[in-house]
């Protein structure tokens, strides 16, 4: 009997009703998620309109070569049954006590609504002649719509319990429920109307009631327009929600990066702090094959800047010195500020003489003339103590302590110089 249908009109009917069903499931989910309990109230009427539109468009597709006259009272009554029945079905489904564990009551309401609407709609056709549907096909149509209603409700329930983080699964269940209901209504319609025959009634012998035809056509147009308006509204809401989530996600990423920057970097110079330095060194220890040289740099004369011109000028000087260190180390090593006027430079190098040359270069650059906002400073120098991994230790604390001891050793012997930690000459504080 499929070749008797206008396939393009059938596909159009399925698309329109599918959109209506999808919208009804979205309204149900949106109301449950946002606690807007008025939204699910529109789920039933939207689904009922979708079922009704599917029925009448497929009837027209089945008998597209005939003039079909309807009883307007029965036709509108079938629409009312579809809207009220689907609304009751959703109400029963949304209340846990009523739906039970197997959704039998709401499935019975949905299937009874679809069947009642269908057979009342068939009875509304005035010029259908003596049409007859066998009891077997009626029973099969009822079984089909009942089973698909159970499956549809199960998928809808899975959609409702999905959290916001798994919207892709919610969309999958929503689409599956939509396709299931479309198939169920289509199968019920095919079984319940395939025996109707209008071929024996000539088109010329049947009067055409333009009022009834225009009323039904206008009703269809209004319902289809409402469904599409709801669909456009949902697309807009989904886009707005997606955009809002993306903006929030980016803002959270930005805040996390800022928080990470604050916890692992010095707020004044933006250099890595002691915490970051420890993590970086521990990482290097696990993957390192060459020697690691840890330079402990302490500024000479910095206290004078703070005492004479204040801490604001001292901070300005620290920023300039940190920039000098970064520019001269570049990719050769790692620079960190661990507090006050103390800096750490980590260099991976096989040749000790290269490290000595780098340290001397840093001394020369630090002992530069600095033009600050309140004054110019030309008396700053530095003392550098160096420890070596793994020669002087295998952990961060030991290496930093020995580099610190070496730095104070050279500071007490004239400043503005470098020295390596020596186990014999230098002793660690107890």
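-> sequence recovered:
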């Amino acid at each position: 009997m499929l070749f008797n249908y206008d396939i393009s009109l059938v596909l159009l009917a399925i698309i329109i009703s599918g959109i209506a069903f999808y919208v009804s499931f979205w309204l149900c989910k949106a109301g449950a998620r946002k606690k807007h309990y008025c939204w699910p109230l529109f789920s039933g009427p939207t689904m009922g309109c979708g079922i009704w539109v599917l029925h009448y468009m497929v009837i027209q597709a089945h008998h597209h070569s005939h003039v079909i006259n309807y009883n307007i009272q029965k036709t509108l009554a079938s629409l009312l049954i579809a809207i009220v029945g689907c609304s009751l079905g959703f109400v029963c489904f949304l209340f846990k006590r009523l739906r039970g564990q197997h959704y039998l009551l709401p499935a019975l309401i949905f299937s009874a609504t679809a069947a009642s609407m269908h057979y009342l709609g068939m009875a509304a056709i005035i010029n259908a002649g003596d049409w007859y549907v066998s009891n077997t096909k009626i029973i099969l149509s009822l079984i089909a719509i009942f089973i698909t209603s159970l499956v549809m409700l199960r998928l809808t329930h899975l959609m409702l319990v999905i959290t916001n983080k798994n919207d892709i699964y919610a969309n999958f269940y929503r689409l599956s429920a939509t396709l299931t209901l479309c198939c169920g209504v289509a199968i019920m319609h095919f079984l319940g109307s395939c025996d109707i025959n209008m071929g024996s009634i000539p088109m010329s012998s049947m009067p055409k009631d333009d009022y009834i035809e225009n009323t039904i056509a206008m009703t269809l147009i209004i319902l289809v327009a409402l469904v599409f308006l709801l669909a456009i509204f949902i697309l807009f809401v989904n886009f707005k929600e997606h955009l809002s989530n993306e903006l929030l996600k980016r803002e959270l990423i930005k805040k996390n990066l800022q928080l990470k920057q604050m916890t692992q970097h010095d707020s004044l110079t933006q250099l890595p702090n002691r915490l970051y330095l420890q993590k970086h060194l521990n990482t290097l220890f696990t993957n390192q094959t060459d020697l690691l040289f840890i330079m402990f740099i302490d500024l000479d004369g910095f206290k004078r800047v703070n005492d004479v011109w204040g801490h604001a000028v001292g901070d300005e000087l620290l920023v300039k010195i940190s920039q000098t260190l970064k520019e001269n180390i570049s990719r050769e090593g790692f620079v960190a500020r661990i507090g006050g006027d103390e800096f750490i430079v980590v260099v991976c190098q096989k040749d000790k003489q290269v490290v000595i040359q780098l340290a001397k270069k840093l001394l020369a650059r630090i002992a530069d003339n600095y033009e600050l906002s309140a004054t110019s400073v030309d008396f700053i120098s530095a003392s550098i103590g160096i420890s070596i991994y793994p020669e002087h230790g295998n952990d961060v604390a030991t290496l930093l302590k020995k580099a610190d001891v070496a730095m104070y050793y050279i500071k007490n012997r004239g400043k503005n110089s470098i020295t390596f930690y020596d186990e014999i000459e230098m002793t660690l504080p107890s």
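Residues 198-206 have pLDDT under 50 and may be disordered.
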